[in-house]
Design goal:
Blueprint: H1 5-17, E1 46-47, E2 55-57, H2 63-79, H3 89-93, E3 96-98, E4 101-102, H4 104-119, H5 127-141, H6 146-160, H7 170-176, H8 187-196
Antiparallel strand pairs: 1-2, 3-4
Length: 197
Amino acid sequence: PGETLESLAAGFDRLYALGPHEIQLGLLKRLRGTPISRHTAEWAMEYDPKPPYIVKQTRTLSAETIERLDRMARYWERVANSGRFTRTLPLLMHAPVHDGQISPFWAFMAFSDRVWARHQKTAFLTPENWVDEIFDHLVLRLGLDEELVRHTLLSDYLASGARAKPQCLSLLLTKTSVSRPSVHLTQRQAMHASAQE
């Protein structure tokens, strides 16, 4: 309670700078027997009427902002926590997007907003969809070098053991199909390729 979008962003950026394997993003829930209920009136907290009683709005976070944060959390899980983009994620996270400053939170929020605007869904995007979305965002929106992005994504895609062909990598995958790894990484993509060794 009491968090604003700006304070959440600052906290996320501090945590991201520590280099954890994963960052779990999630919305506050009112579970039976937890002390959060005593803050309900003070922070004008509204909850989903069904379990697990997710916070839908507070005095400092509108319903629209909380929905936006929820989408970001879902996309973060599929992109960052999946371990599929260990080499590409730093490109995505270090784009100066907020008041001319580098902010991993705002960088990923901008990506999240773009994916939502294009697809209007948080589920059922394939690994290939994610590769193409990241490529488009980094190259078309942020203006990063196309070949750098393409080769970085190719490295991540091959390491993931995926078999289809994202549109942005189709020519490169045809050329490198013989060198694809046969081992499919598991355990959260081998704990993000041992934290990029």
